[in-house]
Design goal:
The protein is an alpha+beta fold. The chain has a single domain, classed as Alpha-Beta Plaits (2-Layer Sandwich), CATH 3.30.70.141. The protein is 45% helix and 16% strand. It contains ten helices and four strands, in the order βααβαααβαααβαα.
């Protein structure tokens, strides 16, 4: 007999970072609105200006960027991320990690379909950024897996900075009739 899945196990928390280009372009509100419109709930949010050490923990210790893409890609990305503050957001919802990735679109803006955040608000290619020696300004970071999301949320938010509450839309977005 198949094991029954507990619906509470499908409610996840995930991390979104509105990167320096999103903050400096003044489109953070539009980005947040996309997550809220599908019923994701903000359970933590703050503006921060992280140092290189935090980004190294985030991108290499958790995300394995150097391991996957090389030291040069990490350095380009680090330099880009240090250009200004970011908005860190902890979102909660049903299978939130996968849903957020779908809304955000692929990492390379040029490849992101219209209708995704990256497809609608950015267009740079990896080739262009490599030729310029810069990180790709792709507006947002979104956790890549459930395990990564758990680690990233712990890195960016203390327990006291996230909140449990029921919002009015949960009646429809989670079937809490």
């Amino acid at each position: 007999m198949a094991q029954k899945i507990n619906s509470k196990d499908l409610v996840q928390r995930t991390l979104v970072l509105c990167k320096p280009d999103a903050v400096q372009r003044g489109i953070v509100g539009e980005i947040i609105q996309r997550f809220e419109r599908v019923g994701l709930k903000i359970v933590g949010i703050k503006m921060v200006a992280p140092d290189a050490e935090l980004y190294e923990k985030h991108y290499e210790e958790i995300g394995k960027l150097i391991t996957r893409r090389g030291e040069q890609t990490f350095r380009y990305n680090l330099n880009y991320m240090l250009t200004g503050p970011v908005i860190a957001i902890c979102l909660e919802g049903i299978e939130a990690v996968e849903l957020v990735r779908k809304i955000v679109g692929p990492t390379e803006p040029k490849s992101a379909p219209m209708g995704t955040i990256r497809g609608d608000y950015s267009h740079m290619s990896f080739g262009y950024s490599d030729a310029k020696g810069i990180g790709v300004p792709n507006l947002v970071h979104a956790s890549g897996s459930v395990e990564e999301a758990k680690e990233e949320v712990k890195l960016w938010f203390t327990e006291a900075e996230t909140y449990d509450y029921e919002d009015l839309s949960e009646k429809y977005t989670r079937g809490n009739f």
